Amino acid sequence: MFLPKKTAALTAAAALTLTLAACGGSAEAESETPATGTAAEWPRTIEHEAGETVIDAQPERIVSTSLSVTGTLLAIDAPVTATAVTAARPGTTDDNGFFAQWAETAVERDVEPLYTVGEFDLEAVIAQDPDLIVVSTSGADSVLDQYEALSDIAPTVVVNYGDQTWQDLAGELGEATGLEAEAEAAVSEFDALVEETAGKIGIEEGTTASVVSYNAGDTSPVGKPTGPHAQLLEKLGFTVNEPPAEFDTSTQKREDFAFTSYEGLADSVTGDYAFLISADEKKVDAFKADATLANIPAVQNDTVFALGLASFRMDPYSATDIVTWFGDTFAK
To answer: For this UniProt entry, which residues form the secretion signal (predicted)?
Structure first.
């Protein structure tokens, strides 16, 4: 069962618990419906970003080498035994290095820290004795270059969380884990929350927005319309502006963010609203005080908002917190 936890960066008003559980029908109907992950559905061949992988039986010990994917795995009740972690940072992670939005769930389920992102440890993976390994294509947590070595340990699937919503990612992971029904339930409940919130806040058609992870005086990721943050904002009624490619310093093709030079930031954050991710009110104040950004629409109109310290990576937990915040903040 997916029970989102409120992040420390969000206000108490944003603490909405969204229980994702499939609604039960009659006992007769349940008896006639085959259970997800039954023996008849295995083995199965999974097509993914690195090719095809045959999974002989429904996974029971999943290792996630991608910290950004772990939240979605937990939300569909996947049996994650260990995950890569990041350096512990107050407001963003717990002491284990788990992202704050799903840390409590991970601890409750006895998920173990695998290794710190950037310090890949093949022996740690082997020690987990996994029957499925999940890898991401890009991002700081990607170990795509270790795909062959990991595939020698256990079936390994590669996913791209940068060019799709967590809902689409949940569908992919649901197929690989035999948890399609759990993935569909999580998505349905979340989509219903988004639809309800969009109606509640009533954003005027044509209202534009920019998404930015602000780093004063340095490169700042600015959200692309194809990224998961932008897709969520679009569903809430905003139109997300495309950041100019000329200021993008990315060394690899990305669909989620343009890593924008500081010199080009004012020309890239052009929305009526600017939503800052990985940010709190102190970051908002710094953004508005930055002289190079003084003339952008959001600063001029005082429409710069922080989406929370845990908002950079979109998973079911952080996305639910964001939607709840919009419902509380923009309600008419």
So the answer is: 1-29
Give the model confidence (pLDDT) of 40-95 as tens digits: 599 999 999 999 999 999 999 999 999 999 999 999 999 999 999 999 988 889 99
Residues in the chain: 332
Pairing type for strands 273-276 and 239-240 reads unpaired
Tell me the CA distances in angstroms from 19 to 69, 109, 123, 154, one per residue in order: 20, 17, 37, 32
Residue type, 257: F
Sequence-ordered list of residues with C-beta below 8 angstroms from that of 275, at least 6 positions apart, any chain: 209, 210, 211, 212, 229, 233, 305, 306, 307
Question: Nearest-CA neighbor of 76 among 202, 5, 144, 178?
Answer: 178
Structure tokens at 281: 């009110």
Q: Helix 316-329 to helix 228-235 angle, to the nearest 10 degrees?
A: 40
| Measured distance CA(312)–CA(273) in Å, rounded | 17
CATH architecture of the domain with range 202-329: 3-Layer(aba) Sandwich (3.40)
pLDDT class for 37, splitting at 50, 70, 90? Answer: low
Residue boundaries of the structural domains of the chain: 37-190, 202-329
Q: Which two tokens stand for residue 132?
A: 């499925």
pTM: 0.80
- How distant is the alpha carbon of residue 162 from its chain centre? 9
DSSP state of 325: H
Q: What is the pLDDT of residues 173-230, one digit of tens each?
A: 999 999 999 999 999 999 999 999 999 999 999 999 999 999 999 999 999 999 889 9
Give the type of residue at 15. A
Q: Which helix (H) or strand (E) holds 70?
A: helix 67-75
- CATH class of residue range 37-190: alpha beta
